[in-house]
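Action item from last week, closing it out:
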Amino acid sequence: MALSQSVNTTFGKNRVQHHNDFRAKWMYETENFITYWYGKSKEVAKTSIQMAELDHDEIQNIMEHRFNDKIEIIVFLDVTDIKQSNIGLEETFVNEPKVTKIDGNKMFVYFNGDHKHLRQQIRRGIAAIYLNSILVGVNLQEVVQNAVLLNLPDWFKKGLIEYIGSYWNIDADDELRDLMAIDGGKYHDFDKLKEDYPKIAGHSLWYFLDQNYGKSTISNILYLTKINRDLESSFIYVLSQEFPDVITEW
């Protein structure tokens, strides 16, 4: 059951606003999430928190990790409203396709009229927050101890978030197929693919591991990468194969 209450928050001190919807903000709260909404975005906020709760346990089970704090979802009616608000960091509001902006335990989503797009944003946001919690930690001591994990390759992090956001679909399939056809198949080489297109490279590899070795492989690799601070040794422990051999199989 979602609870709603008003939050007295002043918006727009640092940004030009084109409407008055930001004068007050409201919230819904459930077991695992708090969703903040403003103006006419009440129904989108309701849908967002329902989607988040619907997908939460599945994502938690994939990553085999528990996040103790509630995840906050800040909902906007469209991407232009994000740029008018004054919540969070400046870089949070730079528009990058297929990326859910997060700041600590907060995610920022917007509704473009497509509920599937909204749900993918929320799934990516949950995955990104969980991944940061697993690899980096939440307190200062953990952050310092695990700082080396911030140097994990982009394909690992971005690919995993995208995999959880949408598993695999026709758009990803078409994108990879088109890339594989470029210049006589130069992107059949994973090293070249991950360098130029890390997200689709990682997305396809995580999906490959899921389909061929099972979902539990994902959490095992995450756990051992954190413990060993070495990605390739994690693949050896979990899959009993060298990383290059896994890539050849991919």
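Closing note: The chain has eleven helices and six strands.
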